[in-house]
């Protein structure tokens, strides 16, 4: 019978061993396969662990941020220590009660009197620490930990515990005291050193032969490893938690600052969720859009439903979502312009400030500031992403084109690099060219604004661009690898991408040029030149008969009648170009620039013309002249006379002399700072086209009536008062 049981046990053992071996082999194979297939991941993990371990042992903070994290970790450890004191007090209190109770009943004690005394002393000390928490500060935590481990090591000495009970006591300490205490020591290094004390005591006991068994030493060795690992992990967890909470605090501060700033700058601030829907109702936006009906809410409204049309909505989504590629742990911002539509279907130009961030749960959120800019300047200025120019998001063709340029202008590194960013970074030069007017309408560099493409590219370059334009479509941009770009007197071979741009107002195409640094004028340099040459070579076509000469207001009908064909078109081109250049000089939208007057000026050396070349400033004629422009149609120099000189009132001398030539244009402010004269004409005839512009915000009557009829905020009252005043006091010509 017995032998049957034994043999069945043996069979059971063999079966268990075989099955276990199979599972072991399976597990090992899987682990080996996993290790090979994820080797880079494992290498990264190992590197991260090494870094973490080094960081855990090195306590010297390098930056203010690291110092703050360490301080916060110490504060957390102090809390852990206070909890630990309470817990140890309760534990010792219970143990001593049991000992006391057994002593009273004269039952045998399970601990030596020396250990009982040591426990009682420890209890008094911990109870005192609990009663007077101020004794324990963050700086004293390490001292407390050293004393505690010294105490545990001492109680493992031959005077406290028999060799037979040493393993049990060691395990008890590990489970109930040493492991919970690892959160107190500020570095795992200290834990490692302190854990050597009990190991040393037991090692000595085994070494001297006082303790015959090696087991307690082996247990203590495992305890050493365990406490060091636990301490490192606790350090990691605490640091991670503190870093995260500081990061969220910083994000919250950034967010609050941004939000306050947006509230100051904008007419309305709203929050959109990841689907671009409004998170909550916004009374200020409801007032702006005249959607303030009782009971009506904007919460849940799709932001794109507030935009003027589907094309604007598409562009806005593209721009808003563009920030989604940015790092998640930051707050990213951009500004662009679009058109909102109110409930009366009035469209108004709006500057959109977008701040994108992620909630702690990882959800994307957009804080949107909306600023009505129909009659006030944009705040973001040239930093705004122009909503009408969709720059290719990944710019793949551009990236390809740029990589071929090599070190001169290295291309963007990843597929998510926004071309606008690159333009800002100085690698691209963007030129948005108006197809009809053949004028650079928008550019990443102001120096090229208002220029004719032929001024920027060589004849072959222009032919290449013309061919590209014939083929290009909105969806597929065309890459040009060798385009000659004019740099002063020589040409630079650059690569470029040409793309058609959808813009309801102007037919335009965008040229993105991979720009060697020379194409970019240095920041802050005088990018706007007050004298420019419009080299069409046909400016004499602007000359018309005597009838036109006396005309002060710009009369396009008269111009069309007198300047036939090209002359009239050239006149339109010149007007528009000058308007944009003045807008640029005044740093306002072109819609703010109005031509107040112009005339064709004729001088003859025989003295037949009336002008005597008086010293004057143009504003003295009419105070609505804010900016002056003169386009010369004939060439003059010091020999012929007829030059234009500008006066320096400080020095009492002429500061600048401009030599007129056909197509040369000067733009200057019309005030006393620009006193000028035409030098006496000595030879021949002289023709010029002086133009005078007013620069002012148009009175937006829709907005005015909205603000004055239904003012819903102090801002609207102020606006109403301000603009009514402007309206009522405006000169008659302002409404012509
Ligand atoms: O014809 C010019 O060059 C300048 C004319 C001028 O200064 C003016 O008309 O105010
Ligand atoms: Fe003048």
UniProtKB/TrEMBL annotation:
Its cofactor is L-ascorbate. GO terms for molecular function: dioxygenase activity; iron ion binding; L-ascorbic acid binding; oxidoreductase activity, acting on paired donors, with incorporation or reduction of molecular oxygen. GO terms for cellular component: membrane. Keywords: Dioxygenase, Iron, Membrane, Metal-binding, Oxidoreductase, Transmembrane, Transmembrane helix. Residues 594-695 form the Fe2OG dioxygenase domain. It comes from the Eukaryota. The chain crosses the membrane at residues 12-33, 84-104, 110-129, 141-161, 181-204, 216-238. The keyword Oxidoreductase applies. The keyword Disulfide bond does not apply. PANTHER family: 2-OXOGLUTARATE AND IRON-DEPENDENT OXYGENASE DOMAIN-CONTAINING PROTEIN 3 (PTHR14650:SF1), PROLYL HYDROXYLASE-RELATED (PTHR14650). This is Ogfod3 protein. It comes from Symbiodinium natans. The gene is Ogfod3.
